Amino acid sequence: MNLNKYHGVIPAFYACYDDNNEVSPERTRALARHLVSKGVKGLYVGGSSGECIYLEKEERMLTLENVMAEVKGECTIIAHVGCNNTRESMQLAAHAESLGVDAIASIPPIYFHLPEYSIAQYWNDISSAAPNTDFIIYNIPQLAGVALTPSLFTEMRKNPRVIGVKNSSMPTQDIDTFVRIGGENCVVFNGPDEQFVSGRAIGAAGGIGGTYGAMPELFLKMDALVREGKYAEAAPIQHEVNAIISELCACKGNMYAVIKGVLKINEGLELGSVRKPLTGLQEGDWPKVEIAAKHIKAAIEKYC
Length: 304
Known about the structure:
- The chain is an alpha/beta fold.
- The chain has one domain (4-227): Alpha-Beta Barrel (TIM Barrel).
- It has twelve helices and eight strands.
- α1 (25-37) packs across α2 (57-71) and α2 (57-71) runs parallel beside α3.
């Protein structure tokens, strides 16, 4: 099994809206083209950064359709298909497979704390709706309220379509655990952007992150240095990225609204705001958005 197509920098794709806060096919395609032109390995569509839990199923399908129409065959596409019910998750999985994505992914069901056998059944049901497509488990316990345990991952590895984990838990030790359990025919992605270098050092083959799209050049540079074993050179870039992330989180508006503002300033991309109940940019936020945008530009000039 060749998993090289998953190795590297894979930005989590942002939901793109028109001026009426409806999903915009044109802006979706523009963002996909922009990110691919930067040289990223792939795109992770429909996850947290895509505001998935606040979009209707049809809107998620529309987003994926336009990403695939724009860049299919040019990069790896992973479609997050998890909903908080099995039926719609399976519908999204089947739709994603019909479009020819490389993999589907899913968080566990949220709200009710289900036993492991119920979570395993949920993921296996989703996988069964896309029987010819790789499946990636999305572990983000701080938001989902349930963690991927070694026993649950061991059970899921019985499904031959399960080829990896997008690990967004904070302990890097979890990456090591899943790498050891998964074996050589498994890929583990670093999730927390703030630990891209350390996550890669302990075994992650690639990264999927929500701030990559705001500054892909910096993550691509870290990736290149990590591949060469130059962790000491990558570390200062990580420190700079972490300072930028703090700035992206310093507004009243949601971080993704801030990132879309940054992309408007730095790249001329109009991506709209965010979907309620997420909060858009508020009065007094724009100067902070400008500071983050300027910081990103300066960091790229310094390191790239």
